Amino acid sequence: MWKFVLPAAAVATAVAPTKQHLDFEGMAENFRSISQRQAAGEIMPQATFDQIRNFVDQISQLVKGELETDEAYAQDIYNKSKDEVEACDSDRKSTKDGDVAGKTGAATTANSNWRTCKGQEQTEYDNMTDHCTDVNTYVNDWNSEPHCTGVNFKFGDSDAVKIYMDCICEFVDAHKDIYYEKRWNCSEATQDHGDKVKECGNPGKQQLLDDAFCAEQKAIQDMCSDYKTCRDREEGELADIKATVMKWEAVMQTQRVALEQLICFGEHILDNDTDLTECNDLVTADCHGFTDCPEITYYEAAPRVKCTEPDVSRLPCTTEYEAKWYKDYPANGEVPAKACKTGCSVTFPFTHQDSGCATPVDKLVGASPAAYTPLSEGPVVSGKWDSGSSQCTLLSGTQIESTSSGVTDGFCCDALTAFLAGNLARGLKGTQWSWTGHFSNVHFQCLIDPYWGTCSSDAELENAPDDAAMEKLRAYLCHNKATCNYASTTYSGRALEVPLVKDTIPASGEWAALMGCNDPSTYCDA
């Protein structure tokens, strides 16, 4: 008796996308059994035929649709986790634009207020100096006036004593009002200056300045700390989610292949084709061969924002801070800054701080001992550096000659030679003007020192730097543009008559673009 059982599992699901939508193995055995009966010559009832046709239509639409739903669900789960990682960046930006910017604004205001105060202190100092100098000068000028003739008081009162006393009284009457006024002006100016020194000092507006800068740097440290905690947490969760979704993806792809096999079985049965070899072989099919293979795109989260905001010159009481903010008020000046307020909760070196540099580069020039001996020091032609003329021969062969002038050290010559050769070899790979076919006489051995890395294992890139070495060479040349002067490179030779070669070698002005040196701030001394 013919029997075909429709699967009850082919229904929608709201749970995890690893749900088994069909009993694929059971259905496959069912189809094989029907096919065997067909092969034995049995006639399939029309009802069974209609069931199989409906089933094929059903799984072609419903189950495929469910897999698409599962795929979208899994993609959404991953995307949301990635978005949570990047939400850390948004929160950081909000903090930087809000709290940190507010603290920076407060520090700017505090600095302005303090400098205004110091300007007033200078005015009070000048006023005090003027008034006190005035009274001193007034008193000193008395020495230039006629003096009262002195007398001997031991004989008691006399006409001479009376004349002397009258002279003194006349002098006092003549000067006392002016003297008292000038002395009062000096005293008041001194008091005003002292009050202003206290107002501008520490405690005072200088303290407010130091406190404001401390608060700014603390806000920055808190921001970087919170951001690191957030990214650590969310990136960990994203890694876990990715691992789970990858398992879901594998299950969905397995189901998609199994689904294709069932459709194949059904169509063969409907066509009365009992050769199921093609269908059986689908068990090893690659899901990616189907246009609707469930596939998750694992978008990379944005790279972490570096904590480059901490600034030692804005951290109170450091040498850099005092040199920057107190320099206009030296200790031996008329209005010196007071001692910096200590006790800021942020200290240097900072707990959280990243270099803005993405690619540190060893500083080879002047290194002692040198990291390696430049290839240009050996008995070579290509890569030979002439220290006297500051000229580097990058390539020297029967087909091509390349030189660069203004190269002030051998390390640059090595790097220029290796990078040019590596780029040339890659550009000509697989062409009739291959590197090994026409330039093998240029370099008969690996042309880079182990410091840069290794040469490629690709036979068509023989003796040329591998990808990792090319990146190291690129970084060194980008960072040392002034020393390496790659923009001065010139070329000559028959090889340049070939467009493939000419188009592969960068023109003098194209080196920077070729190496991606658009942002020199990303390279720094290691």
Rg is 44 Å
CA-to-CA gap between the ends? 81 Å
Which whole number gives the mean pLDDT?
82
Contiguous low-pLDDT stretches (5 residues minimum) are 1-17
Strand content: under 5%
For the biggest sheet, the summary is: 4 strands, antiparallel
Following the backbone from N to C, one meets helices and strands in this order, namely HHHHHHEEEEHHHHEHHE
**Coarse shape:** elongated
- So how many helices? 12
The helix content, as a percent range, equals 40-55%
Number of extended strands:
6
Strands of the widest sheet, in order across it, are 2-3-4-5
Class from secondary-structure proportions: mainly alpha
